[in-house]
Amino acid sequence: MTTNELISEIKKKQSFLCIGLDVDLNKIPKHLLEKDDPIFAFNKAIIDATHHLCVAYKPNTAFYEAYGLKGWKSLKKTIDYINTNYPEIFTIADAKRGDIGNTSSMYAKAFFEDLNFDSITVAPYMGKDSVEPFLAFKNKHTILLALTSNQGAFDFQTLNVKGQDLYKQVLETSTTWENSKNLMYVVGATKAEFLTDIRKIIPHNFLLVPGIGAQGGNLQDVCKYGMNDSVGLLINSSRGIIYASNKEDFAEAAATKAKELQDQMSIILNK
Ligand SMILES: O=c1ccn([C@@H]2O[C@H](COP(=O)(O)O)[C@@H](O)[C@H]2O)c(=O)[nH]1
């Protein structure tokens, strides 16, 4: 999917919501555990109930890898289901990959070609040659970790290195890489006050912003400091939406939570 197609979906749906599909078998409704593939059954119901309220889905691969081969099959069924039934939705593999060049190329093939995700999260720690293999794919997006939502973000990302915070160097340097137009960045919703500075370095790129809902980030603050002329934000909520209920009504309850966020987004977009 191109960035322009994503922007036009945001305008059409009046939403820049990304729903995180982080499926934990201990948290889903008990009746689904009797199904052949409980993870896919859960995702399918959530997707069917919420696709008109969001523009992106983000399965975090950890929640699938944890269940071995079965989990990987559920991930494949989920992405195939979205691509077949809701091709207008932007898909994010939250896999946080990145390695030496030839290995990164194989990660990129796995997520962009075999699974056919639109984007993948990548760690910048190994530098240019670890990220460029992802950037080489046309109409695919590499979402680089910049300033993450967790407390540990302050361990390294905000360290002052040669007069500048490390995460700012990641932003600045990555814009010089081959095909950097394919870059988006992760900035945690819990770090909204940093967004003004971030936008000075990367005014145009999309930001994936996790941390609304369970982690306590504030939607209004993120939009105030992080929104640009093309919206430029994908706001993720996972647990806050998908675990709204663990009863038979779980999909409708998820849709209600998603609608609450979409309503707020619509107001913000029309201000
Ligand atoms: O900085 C980051 C980067 C990634 N995440 C991931 O986003 C979701 C958040 O889930 P919630 O349930 O809405 O808290 C999850 O997959 C994280 O691994 C993040 O939270 N922060």
UniProtKB/TrEMBL annotation:
Its EC number is 4.1.1.23. It catalyses: orotidine 5'-phosphate + H(+) = UMP + CO2. One of its GO terms (molecular function) is orotidine-5'-phosphate decarboxylase activity. Pfam families: OMPdecase. Residues 16-254 form the Orotidine 5'-phosphate decarboxylase domain. Keywords: Decarboxylase, Lyase, Pyrimidine biosynthesis. Coiled coil: none annotated. InterPro entries: Aldolase_TIM, OMPdecase_type-2, OMPdeCOase_dom, RibuloseP-bd_barrel. SUPFAM superfamilies: Ribulose-phoshate binding barrel. Pathway: Pyrimidine metabolism; UMP biosynthesis via de novo pathway; UMP from orotate: step 2/2. Belongs to the OMP decarboxylase family. Type 2 subfamily. This is Orotidine-5'-phosphate decarboxylase. It comes from Microcosmobacter mediterraneus. The lineage of its organism: Bacteria, Pseudomonadati, Bacteroidota, Flavobacteriia, Flavobacteriales. The gene is pyrF.
